[in-house]
Amino acid sequence: MDIELSPADEAFREDVRAFLRDHLPDAVKAGAAATPSVFVEPDIGQAWNAVLAAKGWLGYQWPVEHGGTGWTPLQRYLFEKECAAAGAPNLTVLGLKLLAPVLWTFGSAAQKARYLPRILSGEDYWCQGFSEPGAGSDLASLKTRAVREGDHYVVNGSKIWTTHAHHANGMFTLVRTDPQVKKQAGISFLLIDLASPGVSVRPILTTAGDHEVNQVFLEDVRVPVENLVGEEGQGWTIAKFLLENERGGSCHAPKLGYDLAQIVAAAKAESDGNGGCLAGSADWRRRMAKARLGVEALEMIELKIISEIAKGRKPGPQTSLTKLLASNLRQEIDLLAVDLFGIAGLQLETSRPLYGDNAPEPVHSRAAQVAAARYLNSRAWTIFGGTNEVQSTIIAKSVLGL
Fold it and tell me: How far is CA 15 from the centre of its chain?
């Protein structure tokens, strides 16, 4: 794998850096820095999406025929790395990076024509209805039922841990259309309008005080048959395709590296309790070095996957490895932030948002105010998108051949 940049890629990177210097709003950057949760609030995320859409860069991972940029896998990586280094917020991944590839791969011509432009324009904001109270890691055990009646499906059941359902106007979801066959074979993929009668969304507040996830109840919800993506019974195949994109569709190392760099810089101003600064502590430097090596190792794995994609190969089960490593590093780095600020890092402000004119004043600094909430929020990293145990099993079977 050659990781040297060509002159063309160097020029591309400089173009991205210049764009970020000129067009990344300070308010958006500050909002991203003061957001404890994985998903930034729509007022920040959609504002940044609009800037990128105006440039024609929002669908940078999309095929050209659907509004994409035509960038190479390496250019897409460089774009993500420069955005992370500039402190830009994460993009609204659910529509852009999860549903959109499903639509252009499995969707009908009408579905592509309707939904893909609305994702880019921000008219549609999607959430993901996969997990249920009795079907999380064992997703194939889902019980939400869709019964066809004429030109509609009648859907009953509930979905849980549904991120940003309270902001979304649509939910892509897995439903059981045939209870008589093997459980994986009876699942289908539906698009549900959340304004439909029978849909109710109830908040779930996390330990950190964030309203990021919800439970969605579906009671006799009528969904047009044309909202079925693919064929009946193809939902499990589509779900595996989507989860591969969720686990490996983005590069985690650049964002982890950016957050670690902020901690390294802040340590120069924090006392070690012995008359010096924390950055001078040998134990602290060892912890920083361990985390930095982990981020660099993850980046090499992600670059290897990018190299495979550039050769026309699918990312495959290796994405489980990046998900596993990124989850553990996320938690490790967020713990470092709490330890960095000492007692000030234990403040747990439950008001939201922690940015903007009405944000509560921090006890020590804005970074310290966010630290404990971010640490608590990141406990979910080893659960969502497939638990660490699920990822380890996939790696053992599919990567190591055990």
Answer: 25
The predicted model gives 213-237 an average pLDDT of 98
Residues 39 and 154 placed together within one structural domain of the fold: no
**Cβ(337)–Cβ(270) under 8 Å?**
no
CA–CA separation, 5 and 15 (whole Å): 14
Nearest CA to 267 out of 340, 200, 316 is that of 340
Q: Do 280 and 386 belong to one domain?
A: yes
Name the residue range of residue 340's domain. 251-399
Which tokens sit at 319? 């994405």
Q: Could you list the active site residues?
A: 246
| Three-state SS letters, 37-91 | CCCCCHHHHHHHHHHHHHHCCCCCCCCHHHCCCCCCHHHHHHHHHHHHHHCCCCC
- Provide the strand spans (E) within 161-265: 170-176, 187-193, 199-205, 211-224, 228-229
User: Does residue 389 belong to any structural domain of this protein?
Assistant: yes
The CA radius of gyration of the chain, in Å to the nearest whole number, is: 22
Pairing outcome for strands 170-176 and 187-193: antiparallel
Q: DSSP H helical segments within 87-125, as ranges?
A: 93, 100-106, 109-121
DSSP3 helix / strand / coil % (the chain, rounded to 5):
55, 15, 30
pLDDT recorded at residue 4: 80
Show which of 177, 212, 238 is a domain's final residue. 238
Among 15, 22, 130, 113, which residue's Cα sits nearest to residue 71? 15
State the helix-helix crossing angle for 282-310 and 318-341, rounded to 10 degrees: 150
- Tell me: pLDDT of 153 over 60: yes
3-class state of residue 364 by DSSP: coil
* DSSP type of residue 355: S
Give the global pTM: 0.91
Between strands 187-193 and 152-160, the pairing is unpaired
Q: Look at strands 211-224 and 170-176 and give their pairing.
A: unpaired
Question: What dihedral do alpha carbons 61, 66, 68, 71 form, nearest 10°?
Answer: 80
| Helix, strand, or coil (residue 207) | coil
Averaged pLDDT of the chain: 93
32: Cβ contacts below 8 Å, ≥ 6 apart: 40, 44, 87, 88, 89, 90
- On whether both 24 and 160 belong to a single domain, the answer is no
Judge whether 335 and 301 are in contact, CB under 8 Å: no
